[in-house]
């Protein structure tokens, strides 16, 4: 048997990823597409934005594993083989990177660094008044593994943290949880810094429009590290330009790479990063992926399996 690695994004890093997987699974034959060898021997595909249509080449494929937290790059393939489990990547290093990215922007906005940068450019010496962390409410949309980890980190910094998700969850220590459309407005009305880590599904697409953004208290902040398409970009720009939303740190966008003519680039209150909030670590991710492959080989269920019903 063999494992094929395939990506249109990581070509320059494929050797690093291959080495990471080989280190975790020294007995396995790791192939890098298009040098995939005998297609009949390929039983596992490990991919990130793979070339469309290639997965149907492998008649003995048992599972498709993502090199990142999301799987929309997999399920968007119109020639995706049916009936195969798709395994999301839940890796401690990736989660840690997401937590650090979220913490960076929370502190940037909370401590007024965005104001001091603007003042520096104008040579202004103005000491802004401070807000205590316990008086700042951070609202996290998406309380899965990553969202919950971000929330727990922020709690240790004495922020008031609340969360929202589509479905009811069991009790969350130190994080008040809201769920469903009926509780969304209540959640948003209490949120000073909104962090989105929701997956993109039919239920979350365009879930935050001008109507929902207007429910946030004036001078709130947005941090989007989930997926583009969840927060309506045109509506966000409108409220930023009107001064209702103070600033936004955006790592994900409806169209990626972000087109050069997109107005988000030029807005003085928008901070753009190129989808780097949670970059996978080849060694750590390789170990996590190998554990799932070994589970499948032993007849056990890998974790977590993408649910087509839930959309994540």
Structure description:
The protein is of the alpha/beta class. It has helices at residues 14-24, 72-75, 92-110, 113-121, 145-156, 180-189, 210-213, 233-241, 282-297; strands at 2-7, 29-32, 42-48, 63-66, 86-87, 137-141, 160-165, 176-179, 193-196, 220-224, 245-250, 270-272. It has a seven-stranded parallel sheet with strand order 8-7-6-9-10-11-12, with helices on both faces. A five-stranded parallel sheet has the order 2-1-3-4-5, covered by helices on one side. The radius of gyration is 21 Å and the shape is elongated. The mean pLDDT is 95.
The geometry reads as elongated
Task: Give unreliable regions as ranges.
Answer: none
> Nearest-angstrom radius of gyration?
21 Å
**N- to C-terminal separation?**
29 Å
Q: What's the tally of helices?
A: 9
Strand content: 15-25%
Structural class: alpha/beta
Helix content: 25-40%
Please give the largest β-sheet. 7 strands, parallel
Mean pLDDT: 95
> Based on DSSP secondary structure assignment, what is the total number of beta strands?
12
Element-level helix/strand string: EHEEEHEHHEHEEHEHEHEEH
Side by side, the strands of the main sheet go 8-7-6-9-10-11-12
């Amino acid at each position: 048997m063999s494992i094929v690695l395939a990506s249109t994004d990581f070509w320059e890093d494929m050797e690093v990823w291959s080495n990471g997987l080989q280190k975790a699974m020294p007995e396995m034959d790791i192939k890098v597409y298009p040098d995939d060898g005998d297609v009949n021997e390929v039983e596992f595909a490990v991919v990130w934005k793979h070339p469309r249509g290639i997965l149907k080449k492998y008649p003995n494929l048992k599972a498709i594993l993502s090199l990142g937290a999301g799987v929309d790059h997999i399920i968007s393939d119109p020639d995706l083989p049916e009936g195969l489990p798709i395994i999301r990547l839940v890796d401690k290093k990736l989660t840690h990177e997401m937590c650090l990215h979220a913490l960076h922007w929370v502190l940037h906005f909370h401590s007024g660094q965005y104001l001091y940068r603007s003042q520096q450019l104008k040579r202004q010496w103005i000491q802004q008044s401070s807000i205590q962390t316990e008086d700042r409410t951070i609202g996290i949309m998406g309380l899965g593994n990553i969202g919950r980890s971000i929330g727990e980190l922020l709690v240790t910094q004495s922020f008031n943290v609340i969360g929202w998700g589509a479905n009811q969850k069991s009790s969350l220590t130190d994080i008040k949880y809201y769920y469903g459309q009926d509780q969304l407005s209540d959640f948003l009305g209490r949120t000073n810094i909104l962090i989105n880590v929701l997956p993109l599904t039919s239920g979350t697409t365009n879930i935050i429009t001008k109507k929902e953004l207007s429910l946030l208290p004036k001078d709130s902040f947005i941090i989007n590290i989930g997926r583009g398409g969840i927060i309506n970009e045109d509506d966000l720009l409108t409220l930023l330009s009107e001064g209702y939303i103070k600033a936004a740190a955006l790592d994900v966008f409806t169209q990626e790479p972000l087109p050069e003519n997109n107005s988000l680039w030029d807005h003085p209150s928008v901070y753009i990063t190129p989808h780097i909030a949670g970059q996978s670590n080849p060694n750590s991710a390789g170990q996590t992926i190998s554990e799932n492959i070994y589970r499948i080989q032993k007849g056990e269920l890998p974790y977590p399996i993408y649910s087509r019903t839930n959309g994540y």
